Backbone:
């Protein structure tokens, strides 16, 4: 009789997450089997998260799981894809307690219900280092419909969903351990801990957006990726960057505040460009998806990203060169 | 002008690995796009590897990359799938030098040529812990043709490709830093550092093997997985376990030596079961794939795995309960 090792326990913990996916083969096999709908292509994305870098050791384990999954779903959303499922590779410190893992698995279970997806497979291993996970999310969309980063053209209008900067403000609040009696602070902390991937908006923007991505590095840096891959220049109006009331209550709404919001990252909103004759269609799509979108600038010929104040002067974004070595 | 961060350098290092895959979008996008051939299904598998656990800090970086990739290709092979490409999630200590990474990337480049696949996407992040990588490999096969673990039936014959135990012996030699003037030792060390996934054999066994998996935990433990998921008992003849001349030269070929070989793992051979009336077809498939296969036992009703000596007596496998918490 083989003994029930710790890894067997972990398998038993994660197996129920795969029970609704016949192709996952009960995660008892080495591989998962996935059939794509006719006329569809596969979209696949992977993200690694490290404790102490992407999340804090004290973060609730169920929210760590849900954020890890949502970060990947957000990538799929920005491409216009619908999620099929995900794989989880987990490197686990030997000291990790089973109750942490149970809560971690329950977070996946919760979001599987919300997003109607399943665990498809995975691998668990020990590590002498921090807990590290890599999630690979699989999605599908009709052939030829993927929204790329590289499609922005001069003359397109730039939009972003939701509000920007909340997550960064939330991390600041959590890190400084400021008392959070204030509902603004509670809201911002939640925006950091549990981003809302814009799945319905992403699907709605198929055939409408010329380029899109999800805002993870910070709006400025991410629009820089569109500028670079599309070979265009991005001009943004600082006054139009959507800031939440909570964000304004904490940081104000002056140029410094806007720069902070557009460089703090972890927003998981969708930034996208739309040709002039498709703007109405984009607004209708956003309304159907019940997602707020805001026009924030224009695509021009040239290169780079510029943030302009009310007078049209370029804001000297001190932290614009800021790159996340740690992310 | 944004500064060229360390992560940009890394991107530049890995971008050429994706140049032949249009769907990888030059790894400049968040996601890769993959079209499946008509009438095919997707097979997907993920494995995490941690420095100090799955490979040694002193292992040549190109071989670390190639083994990480091959471990995943081996999973695809055992399912009968042909590889489409892979994603790489990399958690990198800040102290890692660029020349290590260059050699690491060159290992992927080498095996991409050998296996005719491309990098499809990835994610690089910093870690305060050991270098950790997760590879997700994607493959395809005609719909309905995947070879599962769960298909073994009483009466089937059990086969394994190549020889067993070489990799474990190689790790022992490398760990003990015994001088390796001896060509046997060189061969065994190579078997550990650079396993040979049995891609052609796997494809050839479609429609022939009733169950299959690649030997990673050790032949005994892995056949235990087939026994469990198929609901059968596995009976193996110790005298038939294929041992290389090099392995015999180091460890001999008595019962202790066979137990060592079947519990050491990391072989990346394919173990599979074949119904009696398909044995000739399996031998023809192996010959076409230019891969040696050996019959090692029979599938019976019941459960568990048994190793029998020449007299038919059960060998008391002291280390049979051995499970790799560290793998």
Residues:
């Amino acid at each position: 009789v083989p003994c029930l090792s710790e890894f067997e326990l972990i398998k038993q913990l994660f197996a129920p997450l795969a029970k609704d996916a016949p192709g996952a083969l009960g995660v008892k096999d080495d591989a998962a089997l996935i059939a794509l709908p006719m006329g569809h292509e596969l979209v696949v994305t992977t993200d690694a998260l490290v404790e102490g870098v992407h999340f804090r050791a004290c973060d609730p384990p169920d929210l760590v799981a849900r954020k890890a999954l949502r970060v990947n779903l957000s990538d799929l959303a920005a491409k216009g894809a619908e999620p099929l499922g995900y794989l989880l590779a987990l490197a686990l410190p030997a000291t990790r307690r089973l109750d942490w893992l149970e809560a971690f698995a329950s977070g996946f279970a919760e979001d599987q219900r919300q997003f109607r997806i399943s665990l498809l497979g995975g691998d668990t291993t020990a590590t002498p280092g921090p807990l590290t996970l890599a999630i690979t999310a699989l999605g599908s969309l009709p052939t030829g419909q993927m929204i790329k980063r590289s499609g922005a053209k001069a003359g397109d209008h730039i939009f972003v969903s939701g509000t920007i900067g909340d997550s960064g403000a939330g991390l600041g609040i959590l890190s400084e351990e400021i008392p959070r009696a204030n509902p603004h602070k509670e809201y911002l902390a939640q925006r950091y801990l549990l981003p809302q991937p814009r799945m319905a908006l992403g699907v709605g923007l198929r055939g409408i957006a010329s380029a899109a991505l999800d805002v993870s590095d910070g709006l400025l840096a991410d629009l820089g990726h569109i500028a670079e891959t599309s070979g265009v220049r991005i001009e943004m109006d600082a006054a139009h960057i959507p800031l939440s009331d909570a964000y304004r209550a904490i940081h104000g709404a002056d140029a410094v505040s806007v720069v902070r919001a557009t460089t703090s990252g972890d927003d998981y909103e969708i930034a996208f460009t739309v040709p002039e004759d498709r703007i109405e269609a984009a607004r209708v799509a956003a309304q159907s998806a019940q997602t707020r979108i805001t026009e924030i600038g224009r695509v021009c010929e040239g290169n780079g990203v510029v943030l302009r104040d009310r007078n049209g002067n370029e804001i000297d974004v001190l932290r614009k060169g800021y790159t996340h070595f740690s992310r």
The mean pLDDT of chain B is 90. The first strand of chain B starts at residue 32 and ends at 34. Chain B touches chain A through 75 residues (CB under 8 Å).
